[in-house]
Amino acid sequence: MTTKTNRKESVQEPLLEVENFSLLFRHYGKGLRESNLEVIRKFDLTIHEGEIVAVVGASGSGKSLLANAILGILPDHAVMKGTLNYKGEALSHKKLLALRGKEISLIPQSVNALDPLMKTGKQVQTVIKEKNKREIQNAIFRKVGLAEETGDRYPFELSGGMTRRVIAATAMVSGAQLIIADEPTPGLDPAALHETINFMKQLAKDGKGIMFITHDIETAIQVADKVAVFYAGQTVEIAHANDFSGKGEKLRHPYTKALWNALPQNEFTPIDGTQPFAYEATEGCIFQPRCPISTDICRQKQPAFHSVEGGEVRCFHA
Ligand SMILES: Nc1ncnc2c1ncn2[C@@H]1O[C@H](COP(=O)(O)OP(=O)(O)OP(=O)(O)O)[C@@H](O)[C@H]1O
Ligand code: NI
């Protein structure tokens, strides 16, 4: 199953290509019986230069694991399967070590990512290659809504929101070609959110590719060109940001429609049930137990990812 040939995108080699990607945790039960917990299942995503792709999913859907897998920072009992390519070449561990922090940069979800013993300004400056480090650091601090003096403070002297801004600022000035931002916006006030979104767009204009992970659909459609909707470890749909409009008529997957219509400014209709763990799912479609339009085939088989009206979807009824 490959969807690559269906995509109407530039012929340029994508920055990041994730295809049929699964992530398992080796797990030892009673009597050292080994079993595998599959937390990401057959995930597909492509990011080109100049493109911002949002990955939207509920808590526990596997977003941070995906980000960490791309950066090669997973626990020892994690097993990856499938394709992970950077500029057309497999992202081996060795290659990752060479690219990490230089060509590929992570804005981690955890606010513990800063060195507690180094002033924040210095930390940001360590990734700046140019000579006028202090000036560049001050400029990026202003952009993300931090006072210049913040650079002379230690991480423990900052609030959670300020810490997030420092972390985001670090990735923004790193010169990386691919930025994986894992929930970079919670805790930002509206003005700083606006600035951050504009700055991400500016980075994309400069040719960088950005994976923007969030559980917030509204932020996703403001910042991204494409939105990948993640459900229990699987991409159920890749839509264009402007497909999110009206009552969601242009959206392809029932879960995406449900997410859209659950927003307060839309119908405010909650979705019944809860997201399963990816490894709990059986043969059928992962969304089937909560799906309003499911039929027999949805219980029997897993739908393949296929193109529908310029987007992609994993549903028999789209
Ligand atoms: N080291 C681990 N070993 C086993 N299971 C794990 C491990 N880390 C995460 N998981 C499981 O994998 C699933 C996905 O976790 P992940 O942190 O990627 O979710 P997320 O989408 O980033 O959630 P959030 O929005 O809350 O940050 C969860 O069910 C979690 O329990
Ligand atoms: Ni997360």
From TrEMBL:
SMART domains, A to Z: AAA
PROSITE patterns: ABC_TRANSPORTER_2 (PS50893)
Keyword terms of this UniProt record: ATP-binding, Cell membrane, Ion transport, Membrane, Nickel, Nickel transport, Nucleotide-binding, Translocase, Transport
Protein name: Nickel import system ATP-binding protein NikD
EC id: 7.2.2.11
Reactions mediated catalytically: Ni(2+)(out) + ATP + H2O = Ni(2+)(in) + ADP + phosphate + H(+)
Organism: Virgibacillus tibetensis
Family under the similarity heading: Belongs to the ABC transporter superfamily.
Pfam family, one: oligo_HPY
Family matches, as InterPro entries: AAA+_ATPase, ABC_Ni/Peptide_Import, ABC_transporter-like_ATP-bd, Oligopep_ABC_C, P-loop_NTPase
Ranges where the ABC transporter domain occurs: 16-257
GO molecular function annotations of the record: ATP binding
Enzyme class: translocase
Subcellular location: Cell membrane
Top-level taxon of the source organism: Bacteria
Cited SUPFAM superfamilies: P-loop containing nucleoside triphosphate hydrolases
Subunit-structure text: The complex is composed of two ATP-binding proteins (NikD and NikE), two transmembrane proteins (NikB and NikC) and a solute-binding protein (NikA).
Topological relation to the membrane, as annotated: Peripheral membrane protein
